[in-house]
């Protein structure tokens, strides 16, 4: 798209009451690497990713989603997006300027239509990363983020209009209607998805593994440590990616995945998938059945950070 100025997903920032417990989970069990720490804030990188960090954990009295960060190509793109958003009446949290987070860079923040804080940045220093080896069951990168919205059509329209995200596929239920929109900002099937939920919250964050073997080894490690499994292992139809969903210590859903589809954007036409059909949810038929109880696990707690910018 000629007006698409966002290039990719950078990181997800969350706040939790028990910071130490959360850090231990994401490092010792999930497989991320701490790269910086400062007064109750920890920045975690994925070994295979050039991003300075893919998760930021912040200690706070209440659990919340601090922000979702996306990359842009250059300062001109960042400035153009900020100007476009402000001109359309979107509330900016900060004006474009130098970032004080690891890797520096240039960026700004704003509230989306549901009140989430979103950051757009460029010129962040590339982290010295490495090839994840065979049988090494740690995340290569942050794959995608899924958010809950009580008005998913409105949220989808916001990201299409203001950030030029494109629809890849839609899940629907014959009685409940459209339930999830898979949105892309590059040829990856989705970097963001919007789920119908009872309140604004994080649905899940997904991390890409090296391959099927590493994905299954990671899944097995979490099962052996009695981490609560929500759903999986299996393979979705939309995106054609594998999935194993677990709950972190504060009830956020996190996913191991691999082989997410890369699209030819010039020829792709979105599908409308009925997720009551078993093969839509899981082509393999190996996951526990998707039902209302499994779905409710990822509703999460109502986000306390709506229209309130994080302090850092």
From TrEMBL:
Residues 8-123, 141-259 form the VOC domain. PROSITE patterns: VOC (PS51819). It holds the Pfam family Glyoxalase. InterPro entries: Glyas_Bleomycin-R_OHBP_Dase, Glyas_Fos-R_dOase_dom, GlyoxalaseI/FosfomycinResist, VOC_core. PANTHER family: GLYOXALASE FAMILY PROTEIN (PTHR21366), METALLOTHIOL TRANSFERASE FOSB (PTHR21366:SF31). This is VOC family protein. It comes from Saccharopolyspora mangrovi.
């Amino acid at each position: 798209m000629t007006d698409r100025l966002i290039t990719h997903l950078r990181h997800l920032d969350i706040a939790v009451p028990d910071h130490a417990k959360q850090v231990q989970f994401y490092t010792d069990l999930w497989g991320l690497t701490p790269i910086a720490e400062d007064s109750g804030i920890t920045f975690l990188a994925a070994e295979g990713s050039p991003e300075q960090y893919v998760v930021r954990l912040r200690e706070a009295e209440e659990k919340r989603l601090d922000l979702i960060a996306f990359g842009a190509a250059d300062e001109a793109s960042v400035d153009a997006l900020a100007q476009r958003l402000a001109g359309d009446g979107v509330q900016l949290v900060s004006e474009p300027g130098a970032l004080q987070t690891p890797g520096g860079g240039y960026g700004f923040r704003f509230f989306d239509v549901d009140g989430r804080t979103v950051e757009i940045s460029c010129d962040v220093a590339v982290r010295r990363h490495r090839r994840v080896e065979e049988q090494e069951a740690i995340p290569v990168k942050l794959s995608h983020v899924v958010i809950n919205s009580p008005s998913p059509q409105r949220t989808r329209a916001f990201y299409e209009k203001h950030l030029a995200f494109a629809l890849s596929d839609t899940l629907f239920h014959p009685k409940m209607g459209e339930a999830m929109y898979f949105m892309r900002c590059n040829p990856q099937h989705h970097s963001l998805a919007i789920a119908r939920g009872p309140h604004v919250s994080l649905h899940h964050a997904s991390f890409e593994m090296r391959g099927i073997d590493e994905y299954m080894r990671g899944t097995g490690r979490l099962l052996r440590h009695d981490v609560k499994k929500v759903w999986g292992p299996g393979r979705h139809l939309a995106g054609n990616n594998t999935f194993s969903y677990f709950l972190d210590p504060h009830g956020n859903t996190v996913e191991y995945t691999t082989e997410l589809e890369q699209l030819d954007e010039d020829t792709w036409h979105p599908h409308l998938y009925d997720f009551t059909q078993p093969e839509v949810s899981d082509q393999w038929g190996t996951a526990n059945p998707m039902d209302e109880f499994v779905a409710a696990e990822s509703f999460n707690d109502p986000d306390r950070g709506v229209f309130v910018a994080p302090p850092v």
